[in-house]
Design a protein that fits this description.
Elements: H1 3-23, H2 30-52, H3 56-79, H4 86-92, E1 99-104, E2 107-112, E3 116-117, H5 118-148, H6 152-164
Antiparallel strand pairs: 1-2, 2-3
Helix pairs in contact: 1-2, 1-5, 3-5
């Protein structure tokens, strides 16, 4: 896979993550909605930078943010007995915009327009976060190998020449 295909794949995954956050907007209280909107707002510009020309620092931020997201999702998963997040769903109510009430393992669950359940979006978003962590780790390995493949003497001469300019 060429570098361009690699970082553009990561950009598409970041857009998918942003869309997952947008799907969760009507699912919870105002604080939950603000958090989901903020996450989407962060994902879209990051996707743009990944599409054009990502830097090492962008890959580091991408990996750390998504590792944190996986940890938060794991915590929410445990709080919700296996993927069903009670706190947000319970506060939304069955008549929230774009959300209809359904039964799920004895708990009140929600679907977006009767097509996709919130649990499915949650699992998909978690999988995307894991994928982004893996993509960031792979990109950092490739980028640091490229940097370290420059012979030490040549690297020292390049640095000296830059300092003179």
């Amino acid at each position: 896979m060429t570098c361009r295909v690699f970082h553009r794949t990561a950009a598409v995954v970041a857009v998918a993550s942003a869309l997952c956050h947008l799907l969760m907007l009507g699912h919870g209280n105002v604080l939950w909605g603000l958090l989901m909107a903020a996450m989407a707002v962060v994902c879209f510009p990051c996707a743009g930078h990944l599409w054009r020309r990502p830097t090492i620092s962008l890959w580091v931020v991408l990996g750390l943010m998504n590792a944190a997201m996986v940890a938060v999702h794991a915590m929410l998963w445990r709080m919700g007995d296996g993927g069903h997040v009670h706190t947000a769903a319970g506060e939304a109510g069955p008549h929230a915009p774009g959300v209809s009430g359904v039964t799920h393992q004895g708990h009140e669950g929600f679907e977006i327009s009767g097509i996709v359940s919130m649990d499915t979006v949650f699992v998909f978003a978690t999988a995307l976060a894991v994928l982004e962590v893996l993509l960031a780790a792979a990109a950092l390995v490739v980028l640091t190998r490229r940097t370290s493949s420059v012979p030490h003497e040549h690297h020292h001469r390049l640095r000296s020449a830059r300092q003179l300019q």
